[in-house]
Amino acid sequence: MNKTAQTSISVPLLGVNIDHVATLRQARGVNYPDPVEAALLCEQAGADGITLHLREDRRHIIDEDVYRMKPLLKTRMNLEIATTDEMLKVATDVKPEWVCLVPEKRQELTTEGGLDVAGQIEHLKLYIASLHAAGVKVSLFIDPDSKQIDAAIACKADAVELHTGQYAEATLASDKDAIAYELERIVKTTEYALSVEKTLIVNAGHGLTRDNVGPIASIPGIYELNIGHALIADSVFMGLEKAVVAMKLAMQG
Ligand code: PXP
User: Which of 3, 33, 224, 240 could join 13 in a cystine, given CB atoms 3.0 to 4.6 angstroms apart?
Assistant: First the structure.
């Protein structure tokens, strides 16, 4: 990711999260559909990057997917991991272009909240330094909160990804007040981040769909959106390549 490009691009880039192709595979314990094949199709359709989450319980993506995918990607890999020693080993071995550090709870259906960076600055400083030493850039998945931005900067993160889950829930509930409140939080946090650290990349994601992505995609300064579940769901009806194109169109408003 090149920060110079951020100021000249008005529509954010699209990172496609292909975890749920693997979810379908794991549901049967077979070897199809292949998330690597899906990632390559997404790239051909215009995805700007591929995101995948190697969870501790390997409920969708497995280690082999990460290793197989890395040399084949033409864009870049954004590997989501929890801040454990096991995951640090994988990340420093595979060397994706980006790692996104996320909180992880075994029982959750999906990543529920942002990482509490402010509550673990010393641990994260060391963790991020190890990734940097391996040539991997680091993003932190955080709630839209200026305190977490300050902490991310203190840890020397290269990027933050603002959690849009609460905004997405408000849109599903058609709760206009909550939508306005959550959007404002994301706008203000983006402005704050870019005002205090101009080199920090601000991404966003979680729960975004073709119906609710427009207002997030039009926030000035947001560099990339990571979108998975809704896009893979769209692909059931329209095919994966069309689903990527349709999401990119929706991002243009
Ligand atoms: N960003 C992060 C950090 C995530 O953990 C996830 C879910 O794995 C996403 C984006 C994508 O969210 P969704 O699947 O709801 O589009």
Answer: 224
3-state secondary structure of 13: strand
Domain range holding 223?
3-251
Q: What is the pLDDT of residue 70?
A: 98
| Average pLDDT per block of 10 residues along the chain, 253 residues long | 52 98 97 98 98 96 98 98 97 98 79 89 98 98 97 98 98 98 98 97 98 98 98 98 98 93
Q: 97 catalytic, yes or no?
A: no
Q: How close are the terminal C-alpha atoms of the chain, in Å?
A: 23
> For this structure, is 53 an active site residue?
yes
Residue 123 falls in the annotated catalytic set: no
Confidence (pLDDT) at 6: 47
Question: From the alpha carbon of 53, which atom of ligand 1 is closest?
Answer: 8
Domains contained in the chain, number: 1
Identify which of 86, 66, 87 has the alpha carbon closest to the alpha carbon of residue 78.
66
Which atom from ligand 1 is nearest to the alpha carbon of 111? 5
Q: What is the dihedral of CA 26, 226, 161, 24, to 10 degrees?
A: -10
Catalytic choice (20, 60, 80, 104): 80
Provide the token pair at 179: 């939508």
Angle between helices 85-94 and 121-133 (to 10 degrees): 20
Question: Of the candidates 17, 74, 45, 76, which has an alpha carbon nearest to the alpha carbon of residue 246?
Answer: 45
pTM for the predicted model, two decimal places:
0.95
Provide the pLDDT for residue 7: 45
CATH number, domain with residue 141: 3.20.20.70
Strand partners, 202: 160, 222
